[in-house]
Specification:
This protein has 20 helices and seven strands. By secondary structure, it is mostly helical. The chain folds into two domains: 144 residues, Toll/interleukin-1 receptor homology (TIR) domain (Rossmann fold); 196 residues, no CATH class. The chain has a five-stranded parallel sheet with strand order 2-1-3-4-5, with helices on both faces. Strand 1, helix 1 and strand 2 form a beta-alpha-beta unit.
Length: 478
């Protein structure tokens, strides 16, 4: 139903009436039917009867009360035409408290900064038309109100988050509020962005560290405990991914790149044992290994999504300092991106159907926890494929693309398929550091031989890797 409005106003001055006529014409231009005395009242008709009829008319969806000083005074004094309309409006308003048919539009604000409003409108939310600037700022608000299309619609009620419905207790994430502060700092380009970012990332790392194993676990229930802890850690994964998506697209900078590498290094350290542990088994730390692995792939997918190709190159070419418990007298103090890889064979006991053996329990868990709509599991598979490509062309690295066991790719992934065109291959070249498609193909062939990828169980090297990477088609359209 299209809106139809009656405009109630006081004949304060000719200029005031002219302004209202212009507003009426603008409303008509925006598809709003307008009833106005100068348009619809003819000689011989009773103006008071006309106004009272319009206020009560059920075909009129809204009554716009243009409130200035004279209008407010006449309404409160029940004087002249405005007074008659006001008596009807006030009764309608008081009888039907929730209805929003009557809309006060402020045409004048007093010296004290308060709008001129009749008493019965004092508690109503009004629209400011007191200056030409206010009219331009608030015109859309009025039109949306008349058409019943508010700018901010109440969302549909969703499902309770996992940390509420799960049987196991999970402490609330202190990073949630800090992310909102960081988000505002990024969007509004507030000074002190580094401080907001540092506080947010510190709270993420602190929360994840709090869940680390610090004593011998119950080995009988360890697989289930790993799954539960991984579930709790997804909120930190999502916080970090939200940050990467937001800052890499909205405000990319060298500071962001450095913070990203530092965050990855700190995440990687969570995989290791804590300093107080003197005896351990590596499987005890599988929850954090899988959390770090999954978060790494999500970060790669997020950077691909926002087109942060230089940041991807930086991640793949950086060396990450090992944690204190991993370093041995300064030897092998750094590792490359492949150190983020993780697997967990013991999870087969709780993830696989009875009597079955999963190709990759880690990938199965990653797929089960892929609950985002903006970074989907297929995006994670694509990130895994890209990481494999980088490993194939980077000596002394080894990456096994276990999520590809669950891939829906029949041939090329979207990112690699687009790289058929030269302008898109140039983006892949930024990531890989290889400017020639022929050189990239040769490097990949050498990498396949080096890693023995042709013998990987469950994979056909050509169908699962070479074709999805679009190796034969790269940079063939100039």
């Amino acid at each position: 139903m299209k809106p139809k409005v009656f405009i109630s106003y006081s004949w304060t001055s000719q200029s005031h009436q002219n302004q209202i006529i212009e507003w009426a014409k603008r409303l008509m231009g925006d598809g709003v039917a307008v009833v106005l005395d100068v348009f619809d009242l003819r000689e011989g008709q009773d103006k008071y009867s006309f106004m009272e009829r319009m206020v009560k008319d059920h075909e009129v969806t809204h009554v716009l009360a243009i409130c200035d000083r004279i209008y407010a005074e006449k309404a409160d004094a029940r004087k002249a035409g405005v007074g008659s309309e006001s008596q009807i409006m006030s009764k309608e308003i008081y009888d039907k408290v929730e209805q929003s048919r009557f809309i006060p539009v402020i045409a004048e604000i007093g010296p004290d900064g308060e709008p001129f409003l009749p008493t019965f409108f004092k508690t109503r939310i009004w629209i400011d038309f007191s200056t030409p600037e206010a009219v331009n700022d608030n015109w859309e608000q009025l039109i949306r109100l008349l058409f019943g299309k508010p700018l901010h619609e109440k969302p549909a009620l969703g499902h309770p988050p996992a940390y509420v419905t799960e049987d196991t207790s999970s402490p609330a994430s202190p990073a949630r509020g800090k992310y909102e502060s960081l988000k505002q700092a990024i969007l509004k380009e507030k000074p002190g962005l580094a401080m907001y970012r540092r506080d947010f990332l510190e709270s993420c790392i602190t929360f994840a560290d709090m869940l680390r194993v610090r004593e011998r676990p119950n080995l009988d229930t360890l697989p289930q405990k790993i799954v539960e802890d991984c579930g709790k850690l997804t909120m930190i994964r999502d916080h970090i991914v939200d940050w990467v998506l937001l800052e890499s697209e909205s405000l990319p900078s060298d500071d962001f790149s450095e913070a990203l590498i530092d965050t990855l290094e700190r995440l990687r350290a969570l995989k290791s044992r804590t300093p107080e542990m003197s005896s351990w088994n590596d499987a005890w730390f599988d929850a954090h290994k899988l959390f770090v692995y999954e978060t790494f792939l999500y970060i790669i997918a997020a950077l691909l999504k926002t087109g942060a190709f230089s940041d991807l190159h930086n991640v793949f070419t950086s060396h990450f300092l090992l944690s204190e418990t991993e370093r041995q007298r300064g030897i092998y103090a750094f590792e490359r991106f492949d150190s983020f890889y993780a697997s967990s064979p013991i999870l087969n006991a709780v993830l696989a159907p009875e009597g079955k053996q999963l190709y990759s329990p880690a990938a199965e868990l990653t797929k089960r926890q892929a609950n985002r709509s903006d970074v989907t599991f297929e995006n994670i598979v694509e990130a895994d494929l890209l990481t494999l490509l980088i490993s194939l062309i980077t000596p002394d690295t080894n990456w096994f693309p276990q999520t590809l066991y669950y891939s829906k790719f029949s041939r090329e992934s979207a990112f690699f398929l687009r790289a058929t065109q030269h302008k898109y291959f140039a983006k892949l070249a930024i990531i890989t550091g290889v400017d020639s498609a022929d050189a990239l193909r040769e490097a990949v062939k050498r990498g396949i031989a080096r890693l023995g990828a042709n013998q990987w169980q469950g994979f056909d090297c050509n169908r699962n890797f070479w074709q999805p990477m679009n190796m034969d088609g790269l940079d063939t359209i100039k």
